[in-house]
Amino acid sequence: MDAALRAYVWERVGRRCEYCQLHQADFDFLSFHFKHVVAKQHGGSDDADNLCLACSECVPCV
Fold first, then answer.
1. pLDDT grade, residue 62 (50/70/90)?
2. 27: confidence class by pLDDT, cuts 50, 70, 90
3. Which of 3, 13, 17, 19 shows a CA-CA span of 20 to 30 A to 26?
4. Quick one: average pLDDT of 29-50?
């Protein structure tokens, strides 16, 4: 995933986990991960509309 795509997703979601809505600036000790909405193995793509941002607390749940 290139830097421009990562930056676009960060800004689109307002730097918040899309699951619990934690803001990255408020919880700088958590890491954030880009996740596929539809997994690549199920036909999902790397397009911005198929990517979401999840904090390290939510990643195991999704």
1. low
2. confident
3. 3
4. 92
Q: Measure the CA–CA gap between 59 and 56, rounded to whole angstroms.
A: 5
Q: How far apart are CA 52 and CA 1, in angstroms?
A: 13
Both tokens of 39, joined, read 């997994």
CB < 8 Å & 24+ apart, contacts of 17-22: 17/53, 17/54, 17/55, 17/57, 17/58, 18/52, 18/53, 18/54, 19/52, 19/54, 19/55, 19/58, 19/61, 19/62, 20/55, 20/57, 20/58, 22/55, 22/57
- Structure tokens belonging to residue 52: 């979401």
